[in-house]
Structures are given as C-alpha cells and as structure tokens.
Specification:
Two copies of one chain form a homodimer. Chain A folds into three domains: 68 residues, Winged helix-like DNA-binding domain superfamily/Winged helix DNA-binding domain (Arc Repressor Mutant, subunit A, Orthogonal Bundle), CATH 1.10.10.10; 141 residues, Nucleotidyltransferase, domain 5 (2-Layer Sandwich), CATH 3.30.420.40; 179 residues, Nucleotidyltransferase, domain 5 (2-Layer Sandwich), CATH 3.30.420.40. In chain A, the strands form four sheets. A five-stranded mixed β-sheet of chain A has the order 5-4-3-6-10. The relative contact order of chain A is 0.13. The first copy, chain A, is built from 15 helices and 15 strands. Chain A is an alpha/beta fold. Chain A is globular. Chains A and B meet through strand 12 and helix 11 of A and strand 12 and helix 11 of B. Chain A binds a DNA duplex through helix 3.
Chain lengths: 408, 408
DNA sequence: ATTATTTTGTTCATTAAGTTGACAAAATAA
DNA sequence: TTATTTTGTCAACTTAATGAACAAAATAAT
C-alpha cells in the first residue's frame, strides 16, 4: 500500500490521475493548467502514455472559442485489471478497464467454509477470469479477504468469524499464475472501491464502514488507506460501546460487533421469537418466523423484510442501529471525516439501515463535526469489494506496467 | 498543515530532514547512501544549505577506514524558531534553534480568563521573546491554543472549557508584528512536539493524548497531523464511554471527558470528601481535605499527592484511568498505532497515570494491536506544546526562508 | 465573406537538476 | 612505506521541464 514511485514518474502519475478522474476526457491544455505544468511537458508525457497504450485520444469536442482540444482518456481495450473479494460466502471477481468500467464479472460459491475450499475457489475463479481477458492484464491481482491481513506477506493473520488463522493467500496465487496478489481486508478493499468509483469519489477524508457478520472500517485520506502498525487499522467491530454490554466473540463485553453485526441481528430476532413463543398470545403471521423454523434465516433476509415494511424486522434493525449510531458518532467526533459510507451485507439491500444510523448519529455526535459530514449508503453495493481490489493493480503497480511497456 | 513544497525542493527537504534527525551530525556520503542520491547531488545541495546558513559543518570525526566524512548539522546560531502554547492558565513561549535546542523560555501568567487578557498576554510574550532572538527569526510563529481551531484562518472556533467562541488569534499577531502566526489546538501542538523531539521520534503512526481540563488527541502519521474536515480530528474527549454515564459539558451523557478530565478528577475527590463528612467516622488527616477547605484544590495537586502515595488520591486516579483505558483501547483497536503518548497536566507530574492507563488498556484491547503498541508518558512534559508549536515554522514554512536567503 | 482573436498542440533551443566517472585527500590495513 | 578504502569535488553528460515561436482550428468582429 505504499505508492513508491520513482520521483521522475511523479508528473506522469499526476497526469494519469487527472485523466483517470474524468471519464469524458481531459485535454492536454486543461491538465497543464490544473497541474501547473507547461503544455509542452504534458504533451510529451501524454505521447509516452499513448505509446504505452495507457491513454488514448477521443474525438475533439468543440465548445468555446479557439482551437478545440483533444480529450484524453484511459484506454479501454488494451490493459485490464483484475480484482477479487470474498463476501457472503462467495468469491466475487471483477475485470475492469483502466477507468474502472466493468468488463467481466464472475462469482464462485463455496460449498463449505474450509480454508482449502476458500483457496481452491479463489484459484478456480482467477483461472476462469484470466481466460476472458481481452487484452493485457496488469500483472497484479487485488484480493479482498475476511479477517486481519498482513499485506506485506499476503497472509491472513486471523479471521475470527471464519475460525481461521494464518492462511497464506499469496503463495498459491503466485505459484499457480506467476502473478503476485495484493491481499487486504475485504472491507478495506470495498472502501477503496467506494473512494475511487463510488460515493467517495473526490472526498479527501473518508470512512467506509462494512457491516456484515463482522464490522470493519476503512479510513481513507486522499485516496490512501490508513493501515496502522500491523494492518489492523479500521477494526471498529471491537470498539467498546458499553462496559456492561453482551459478550463478544473476542471474549470481552460490550463490543460494537456483539450488538450490531449480522449475527447479532439474527440473535435479536430469535430472542424476540422465543419471548413471543413463551407468551400467551398467538404468534402473528410473519415470514421471519417461518424462516427460523426452516433454518433458512439469515441477516440479509431480515434487512430485506424491514425494507418491505415488516414491523418486527424494522424493530430489530432499529435496535442494532443504536450502537452503530454510537460508533459512527464516535468516529465523527474523533476523526472528523468529510464523508462516511455505510456498506456491507446489511446495508446493500436498501438505505434503511443508513437512514437509521444517520438519525442516531445526529442525536449523539457533536454539532461542529456532524455538520460537515455526509453519511451515505454504499453506492457500489456488493461490487465494492472486487472493484476496490481491482483498483490496486493500477493504483500501486504502475511501476510494473512501465518497464513492461517501455522496453517494447 | 499541508507541506506544499515545490517538487524541485524535494531533495533539499529530504536532505534537511535527514540532517535534522541526527543531532550529532551526518556526512554527505551517508545521506547519499540513505536517500539513494549521488554524492555529488548531496554535496551540491549541502553547499546551498550552507549558503543559506541552515546547515553547518562540524569537526570531522575519525572512526573507520577511509577518508573521514564531515558531519553536517543544523546551524545553531543563525536561524531561530518561535513557538507559543497556552497551558494551565499561562502562555509558554519557547525559542529554539533549528534542531530544537531551547535557547530561551518565557511564561506569561494571566490574571483572568477573558479573551482580551488571553490575546494581550500572547502579544506581550511574543514581543518579549522577539527582543531576545540572537539571529534571524523564521517568519512564522506557531501558536497552540485551547479549543477547536481553524488553522486556515487562525481563528479559535470554540473553546468550551474557556467559554469562548470565535477568537481571532491571527489578525492581532499579524498586525502587531507583521509575522504570520500558524494557530492550532494546543494538544495537537504538543503531539507534534513529542513526534519530533520527544518519545515519538521516528515513530510512523503515533497518537498523543493530552489530559487536562479537557481531553484531546493528535493523530500523527509519518510526522503529518491528521486534521479532518474542519480541524476537529483528535477531539476524543467526547468519545462515548457509557450511554448511561454522567452528564458532560457538551450536553450529552457518558463522554470520556465527563469521567476522566481534570475537572472530573476534582469532582470525584469532592464527592469522596462529602460522603466521608456525612459518615460517622472521624475524618482522617489528609492534605487534600485541607486543600478543599482552603479552595486551593486543583487537579495537578491530586496527581502529585497520588504520586507521593496518598491513598485517596490514588483511588481517584484509578477511577478516572478506567475510562481512559477504555478510550485508549478503543484507539488501539480501531487505529492500530505504533505508539501512544500520554501528556497534559494530569500526566506531567509523573508516570503513575500512564501506568494505570496501560494496565487498563491491556485488559481491554485486542491482543494483536495491543502487542505492537507502546504506551508511554510524555517526555517533554509541559514544554511539549510550545516546542511543538516551534516546529511548525521550520516544518511548514521552509519556503518562506528559501526566497529570503536565496535572493541575498 | 473576410479578418481578427483566441486557444490548442507541437517544434526547437535553453535551463535546471541529477548522474557517472575521474581524481585528490585523508584515514586505516598490510 | 605501500596498498586499500572512503570521502568530497570537478567536469562532462543525460534527462526533464520550460519558454518562445508557430501552424491549426475554432469563434467573434467587421
């Protein structure tokens, strides 16, 4: 995650970033003005980028007085970027052009949750995607996984919700495909996706919160992910909400995750069900009670029902959004972000959870930092993770392309 | 706070930073090796820096084989940097050499806490310091103040513990001395001081926590302070500890500050006193009871007594360190810092509070991020603020010096 | 319709910054 | 005393960026 470009490539990088930002295209003159460079310099670097087939010219558009400029945009037929991310028990794969347009999507469902299946499906999916690349692939694959990841080694240190420890993702991928993977936490990947292509575009201080079975966040400043000393930065699931709260999987009491994750949502609903069963009144008709009895209940279903107007589901969602609101207001008070994006399995079905969290956070956050923060639902939904993972190849491995293309 | 140097000054900046880090001096060859530059380049830039009187040569030290290198260090007699910070009801002023050696110190006590007195004392103190500068002053003054500061405008937006709103610090200083001030929150200034000269030297992800009447933090990554959308990042005093906790000055319940600030410490001790008074037993002898009766009690005294072994004081300190430990463990879990430094009025008298916080945090934080964090007491103590403020001139306004000296 | 104006992208000479290679100076090791 | 190693500097060369000049392509003015 350290953008470690040689200093002489700095202008090239900046120019590329500017081109990246406007899908309709930017002219050389506009870039020169914005980056405070001479048109000559921009022109020279632009021809280099065009020789590398990273950038191409569009039809010149006539708008004002003077000779019309020729818009430049990222090539959409030469280079491609591959990202994978694991959500809701399956691997999502996305192949994009340089500007993030999705070219190909794929999903691999897992039959169980063993480590071997996890790795095998990943390899299977990558192999499948590699066949479809209609050009050159940037020689790096972004991979979002559950748990705490050491991105230097590409090893999942621990993934509590899966019950895993020390899962090496790096070696199998490298050995099978001779392409280095960049492995990171899936919610952090999703955060990067939102920052680049979603509702975080152009936001300088951003927090993405992924709410699924676990709860994690990504702190992103100026497009750069805060990693912390061992890549654990963002693990807000174990923020303490109430010292007297319920037992969390980590062994402590009152963690956010114990109140408000997908697992907690299911627990709350089941408690409600039991107490109704124990009561005297007849059980009112409800899809969710059937789901409990059929053992088909999952957190996403509860959220979907809530969005449909199912009162019981809404109540449960309101319950978990209290602690989420507390956590969000803590983040607002202490980190003063410009925008907070709520994503993950519990947010994707609709904006209800985000609305509830916003309402709670407004009650609890300080006025000054709250007035300057926007709280929004994830825009990319379940695609955020794989898209974010796919940003890593271009974002951090431009050096890999340059020698490859410069030499030829 | 945006180090916005022209790209061509990047090497100069890096070389200066390397020289800055070693007080004993670094040779040109060592710098070249470290920064991966040619010795020629370093030599050229070094002569420029020497012409600017920012750097000077020391006696060459003979250690290994080969021609001995000539150590370079920051000049200590040409340029000086002035910082001011407001703590414990008085302004602290520090004049330093470029490498942070303190040349002159001064303190201005305030007779009250009106805004006018606050500004007048600041101007008075600066005037006094300016007389003592034994060379050229970097034309920027770093100023640490209570409250939320907009560092773009130099205005204190609000300082709740002082009861102030919209205090313009920038204009009076600029008008009187024709030197632009850089204004920031005092605890953030102290954090920068620790990061540069104190126990945060060389630490890449650092959190400084200042505990006084209020509680604030500075999040510093690679020497750069996280500011947030409106410079509020670090206001951890209003982190929610317990939704059912005591009323905080901000109108909400259970904020960290309501439990654990200096004001809370005094409240806790007084409650203890009242309950003892109400009891049947005779009041045991204690300096603190006298202080309450004489109205000379302040938070620092309680801390000092605790360090002396006063049981009542220790109990009170233990009480506030529970919530501080919760807050610290939240920061560890979510931000995964390399080091946490505890400073402020309640920490300066001794390491007791830090030790108590460390113990609490160990109980509550997750093992993985806790194992990689060091929790240490502030090294610079009450000098941290003014020293940190004094780092700003050099750190962010090198551009100001360069035109001044290049021209001549 | 024609000319003037504006803006773009390119060509060419120039400048600035950094690199390589050679070399004298100053230390230790043989 | 000589060989080796390391440092700092000088000269020649390379590279990236700039500014000035200019043709091309649009609109505005006459």
């Amino acid at each position: 995650m350290r953008p470690n470009l040689a200093p002489e490539m700095k202008n090239m990088w900046n120019i590329l970033s500017m081109i990246e930002k406007t899908s309709t295209g930017t002219t050389r003159a506009a870039i020169a003005k914005q980056l405070d460079l001479s048109r000559t310099t921009v022109s020279n670097i632009a021809t280099q980028l065009m020789n590398m087939k990273l950038v191409e010219e569009l039809e010149s558009e006539v708008n004002g007085r003077g000779r019309p400029g020729i818009p430049l945009r990222l090539t959409d037929s030469e280079w491609f970027s591959l990202g994978a991310s694991f959500h809701g028990g399956c691997w999502h794969f996305i192949l994009t052009t340089l500007d993030g347009t999705i070219v190909q999507e794929h999903r691999e469902s897992l039959a169980g949750d063993s480590v071997d299946l996890f790795i095998d499906s990943l390899l299977e999916g990558i192999a499948c995607m590699l066949k479809t690349v209609p050009g050159k692939l940037i020689p790096l694959i972004g991979i979002g996984t559950p748990g705490l990841v050491n991105s230097d080694t590409g090893v999942i240190v621990r993934a509590d919700d899966m019950g895993w420890k020390k899962v090496d993702v790096y070696t199998p991928v490298l050995e099978r495909f001779s392409i280095a993977p960049f492995v990171l936490n899936r919610h952090r990947a999703a955060g990067l996706g939102e920052a680049r292509f979603g509702s975080g575009k152009g936001v300088s201080s951003l927090i993405y919160i992924g709410i699924g079975n676990g709860i994690s966040a990504a702190f992103i400043n100026d497009g750069i992910l805060l990693e912390g000393a061992n890549f654990c930065a963002g693990e807000i699931g174990h923020m303490l909400i109430d010292p007297n709260g319920p037992l969390c999987g980590c062994g402590r009491y009152g963690c956010l995750q114990a109140y408000s994750s997908g697992l907690a949502l299911i627990r709350i609903l089941k408690e409600r069900y039991s107490s109704l069963l124990a009561g005297e009144d007849p059980l009112p008709e409800n899809v969710l009670w059937n789901a409990i009895e059929n053992k088909t209940l999952n957190a996403e279903l509860i959220v979907k029902e809530a969005i449909q107007g199912n009162d019981v589901a809404i109540e449960c969602l309101e319950k978990i959004s209290i602690q989420l609101g507390i956590a969000v207001s803590n983040l607002i008070n202490t980190l003063n972000p410009q925008k907070i994006i709520i994503g993950g399995t519990l947010s994707n079905p609709g904006s209800l959870l985000t609305d509830l969290i916003r309402k709670e956070a407004e009650r609890r956050a300080m006025r000054s930092p709250f007035s300057s923060v926007q709280i929004e639902q994830s825009y990319l939904g379940y695609k955020a993770g794989a898209l974010g993972a796919a940003t890593l190849p271009l974002r951090h491995k431009l050096e890999l392309i340059l020698p490859l293309t410069n030499g030829s």
